[in-house]
Design a protein that fits this description.
This protein has helices spanning about 5-10, 80-90, 115-130, 135-145, 150-155, 190-200, 205-210, 215-225, 245-255, and strands at about 15, 20-40, 45-65, 70, 100, 160-165, 165-170, 180-185, 230, 240-245, 260-265. With about 270 residues, it is α+β, with helices and mostly antiparallel strands. The protein has 2 domains: about 5-170, 2-Layer Sandwich (Ribosomal Protein S5, domain 2), CATH 3.30.230.10; about 180-265, 2-Layer Sandwich (Alpha-Beta Plaits), CATH 3.30.70.890. Strands 1, 2, 3, 4, 5, 6 and 7 form a 7-stranded mixed sheet that branches. The chain has a 4-stranded antiparallel sheet with strand order 9-10-8-11. Helix 7 packs across helix 8.
Length: about 270
């Protein structure tokens, strides 16, 4: 899958009507993911290098009268979008009446952060549409009360992300690479994966490979290619590998031609512009 929009459109909130705005909500990859100890509140400390990629949902927000508030589209993560807008409303001390359209393009339950990215996009859109002028840092404070990955997805790009309930985000340089992602049809639940981690001590890659044979086989095959990076993103089951050229991605896709799930070829997305 080649880029559909230039990078600047991935990175900006765009006005598309009198009271309507749009933004891309890019998927993310966990280039690395180390799970640490579990805190008293049940949250695990994690350390992860995260990277946003050009696979995205396209989210729109329109300022409306109170009677018209709602979310449309096929998103199964409407609740996290609603929670994000509710938390932002509390932060600014007024109800932000809007209609949000968030149809899903990023595969769900695939370790790609689609729901979190939709919520981050909703926060960015509301900041612009209601002229709140909060910026990334203040929005990230709101996002911490909504979901773990959302603060990073407000910044985008590449970053080292560490912490449990609250994450420290250290920006990193975005490499000039192409990414191939192979997403098996199996879905893995976040709670289930953390429970298995706590029980076995294994990391998410080991558990995903144990539960999903396609994940295990694809990862082994891509590791034998010219990939710069390989891994399982998030809780899985999606496998990724990065290459110096688009042609190498295409070659890698042929290497796993037997696979009947979804395969994407994408570019990295740089940090957002506020």
């Amino acid at each position: 899958m080649m880029l559909e929009f230039p990078d600047r459109d991935y990175r900006r909130v765009v006005r598309i009507g009198e009271r309507k705005y749009a933004a891309c909500a890019p998927a993310k990859l966990n280039i690395t993911l180390d799970i640490g100890k579990r805190e008293d509140d049940g949250m695990h400390n994690i350390s992860s290098v995260m990277q946003t990629i050009s696979l995205h949902d396209y989210v729109t927000l329109e300022v409306v009268d109170a009677a018209q508030v709602g979310i449309t589209g096929q998103s199964i993560d409407d609740n996290v979008i609603t929670k994000a807008i509710d938390e932002l409303s509390r932060a600014v001390g007024k109800k932000l009446h809007c209609r949000i359209d968030a149809p899903k393009n990023i595969p769900v339950a695939a370790g790609l952060g689609g729901g979190s990215s939709d919520a981050a996009a909703a926060l960015r859109l509301a900041d612009k549409a209601f002229d709140l002028q909060m910026g990334a840092s203040a929005l990230a404070t709101v996002a911490e009360r909504v979901g773990n990955d959302i603060p990073f997805l407000l910044y985008a790009g590449r970053a080292q992300v560490k912490g449990a309930k609250k994450h420290a985000i250290r920006p990193m340089n975005v490499p000039s690479l192409y990414y191939i992602m192979a997403r098996p049809r199996m879905q893995l639940g976040t709670r289930e994966m953390y429970e298995l981690h706590d029980k076995t001590g294994k990391d998410f890659t080991e558990i995903a490979c144990m539960l999903c044979p396609d994940t295990d086989r694809i990862l082994k095959e891509l590791k034998r290619t010219t990939a710069v990076e390989t891994g399982v993103t998030g809780k899985g089951p999606t496998v990724f590998a990065s290459y110096a050229s688009y042609g190498e991605c295409v070659k890698a896709a042929r290497q796993i031609g037997w696979f009947d799930g979804e395969v994407f070829i994408e570019k990295p997305v740089e940090a957002f512009i506020y």
